[in-house]
Amino acid sequence: MRVIIAGGGIGGLVAALSLHAAGIDCEVFEQSPEIRPLGVGINVLPHAMRELTELGLQERVCAAGIVTQELAYANRFGQIIWSEPRGRLAGYTWPQVSIHRGRLHLLLLEVARERLGDARIHLGARLAGTTEDAAGVTVRFEDGRSARGEVLVAADGIHSTARTRFYPEEGPPKWNGAILWRATSIAAPVLTGATMAVIGNRDEKFVVYPIADLPDGRKLTNWIAERRVDPNQEWKREDWNRPGRIEDFFDWFKDWRYDWLDVPALIRSAQSVFEFPMVDRDPLPRWTHGRVTLLGDAAHPLYPIGSNGSSQAILDARTLALHLATQDDPVAALHAYEAIRRPATAALLEATRGDGPDVVLDIAESRAPDGFADIEAVMPMNERVEIATHYKRLAGFEPATLNARPSLSPPRRAA
Asked: What is the rounded distance in angstroms from the CA atom of residue 327 to the CA atom of residue 378?
């Protein structure tokens, strides 16, 4: 079997590594002429770290980021609403890792080149179209190149060419009225030194967590300032990733100073700021069309709530590889993959539209808009626990269930 992967992002590269590990020939075609360390911080949750561990990458990923110890939620006054241990401290067999997205991407690219060989990774290849027959699919690229395989995996992002081909009337991603300003700063450790903190409420939110240790004890710190506006107002919605200006959002957060974090100082020390509208797309009725299927953001772009975007792409990739490796009919394998992953990600998409686990911020705000003396009187522990546990179940990383789940690593096919 030979698999063509359109898209050399995190999902596409993990798919390639997983197929290669299973003894399946594959090639990656990435539309960018150069893969650079773009983006800011992401979290690789334990269910995704399990998959990277089974690919032999845990040590390298942990060394490139921060092994997360804690998740904390606080109101806009800096009062802690909820905190919980993360990764192994929470009973998982695998860690959670906070890491620069670009650093993880380059790490996966390096490993893919080591294992598959440079000849299997192609850059500057934008998907143009496909032609199918009874034996396979011929994939055409805009620069005139072509490739042949039994299936095509379209992991070509939120503006997927393949998705547009199947759903030409869908239009652009859906904006919910929230704008994210994302950046990194060099700063002193926050709380445990490996804490991800989410502060504020649905309309004004600040997220902060470290993504690398520095020699002087400080941290390369990822942060996100989020502000919700009227979605009907004119905003630069066509600009999905553009340089941002601190003066556009600073005043909303200028008084957010706590004994454990100085938000305005962190903002002022930004190395560079990028502006993103918070967008997603509605769930699709199907991902698989003949010998072509979708993966990652091409299939299910999610709001960046609950730290699940890249983790879900990794789960897609591993599930797809498992079914391609264990079924004789590749088209049936694509449908089996979709039958598992499409309902799961559709439910997660709806949860993120409802703020996912971040809903604890909104509940605390509605019940105690001026802060609180005792969080237990505002929001009992069992309620907070249930919110956190429900999201973990939905996203597939409730500790006991994940630890007991069978591996997604298939037996290697004979050469």
From this structure: 53
CATH (residue range 2-38+101-172+282-355): 3.50.50.60
Tens digits of per-residue pLDDT, 343-388?
A: 999 998 888 887 788 899 999 999 999 999 999 999 999 999 999 9
pLDDT digits (tens, 9 = 90+) for 303-339: 877 677 899 999 999 999 999 999 999 999 999 999 9
CA nearest to 295, candidates 25, 32, 18: 18
Q: Which residues contact 262 (CB under 8 A, 6 or more apart)?
A: none
Token pair in block for residue 23: 């003894």
**Whole-model pTM?**
0.94
Neighbours of 159 (CB within 10 A): 14
Q: Give 140: exposed, middle or buried? Use CB within 10 Å, 0-12, 13-18, 19+.
A: middle
Rounded CA gap, 235 and 218, in Å?
Answer: 36
